[in-house]
Amino acid sequence: MDNLSFEESLEKLEEIVNKLENGDVPLDDAVDEFKKAMDLVNICNTKLNNAEEAIAKIVQDNGELVDFNQNK
Hints:
Blueprint: H1 6-22, H2 27-56, E1 57-59, E2 65-67
Antiparallel strand pairs: 1-2
């Protein structure tokens, strides 16, 4: 599951949420689906954090890398 793109992970997460919202899932299956959903949430969170770190480095005109941090 770790090799999924952010968009693929999010799509699978949405499918699980829809399935669980319908309420037609037996309890044991719902627990398994919830665990899969939490794994997908962690994957998405990791990918977002990695993207945030990459975007936080801004290349200035002189080629220096500068940390971009809005929390001043």
